Amino acid sequence: MAQRLLRHFRYGKTFAFLRRLTSSRSKSINAVRSLYLEQGLDNRPCVLCGGSEFTLICEGDRYGFDLDKQICDRCGLVQTSPAVKKDFLNTFYRDHYRRLYTKRMEVDHARLVDEQHDKGRRFLQFLKSTEAAGQLADLAVIEMGCSSGGILDTFKPHCRSVQGCDLDVEAIRYGKETLGLDLEVSEFPTHLPDGPRLFLLSHVLEHTHDPLVSLKQIKSLMSAQDYLFIEVPGINMVAEGDYKNDLKSYFHLAHVCDFSEGTLRALAARAGYEVLSCNETVTALLRPSDEAELPWRRSEKDTPENILRIEATRQAR
Q1: pLDDT tens across 46-84, in order?
Q2: Which backbone phi and psi does 251 adopt, to 5 degrees?
Q3: Are 155 and 212 spatial neighbours (Cβ–Cβ below 8 Å)?
Q4: Is the CB of residue 118 less than 8 Å from the CB of residue 154?
Q5: Cα–Cα distance, 2 to 9 (Å, whole number)
Q6: Which letter does DSSP use for residue 311 in this model?
Q7: How many Å apart are CA 257 and CA 251, to the nearest integer?
């Protein structure tokens, strides 16, 4: 049995069991756990570099799901390994996601849109610090995983056009009927405008079964003049106070991969993107290159020692 990097009891299987047993969400947790146990887990190589050697970080997430978080010994990407299967993720998001996260099936879309407006304003500020700043008014914006459309609603006055897609039927209906947006129920856009475009992927990539494949699929939709904006929750921001400095709260079932600036840059290179801007938040602006893959290297920060550094900030609180 591999020795766990985070040795504290709260990162082990026994604590995960107790969390499942005592949680107010125990009914939802047990239903989800039964689903991934029934379907089995996928012992696959690292989704970034194809490596097969990992260091075990912890054996349970914030809800008590007994899934291992590991860091790849070759590239430093933190990921769930063995991984849940793609069919599980499809069923999870369709039937269980809302109830697990909110304890209810109904969604307050008006409140969700307010939160998305805040994100949209922050994203615009980021883009104004990049080379895309002078082109915003000429860009058609396409958001994949747009939910109710609040981010697009914020972008609308600043860009040539906006459109979005999501698999959440109710969210798409709300965005179309209440915000008057051009939205469709789809994983990827089925129609694209001519001219320069900005693709948005906000807190989506970490949920995908294979983020490298997802980035390559998006690249196939893009032209050389297009941009791809990405934001995912950065693991190194936990040390700065996100999730109250608690990796246990940061790790959870829905996040297949947990990115840093370094691992996002490496993944983008492997998918054939040039990184124009990226930080530890992790917020990034990419542009497709002519190459199928670009050279990449492991960041010196993406190490087991860095995981211990992040955990030490919780203990110091």
Answers
A1: 999 999 999 999 999 999 999 999 999 999 999 999 999
A2: -75, 130
A3: no
A4: no
A5: 15
A6: H
A7: 9
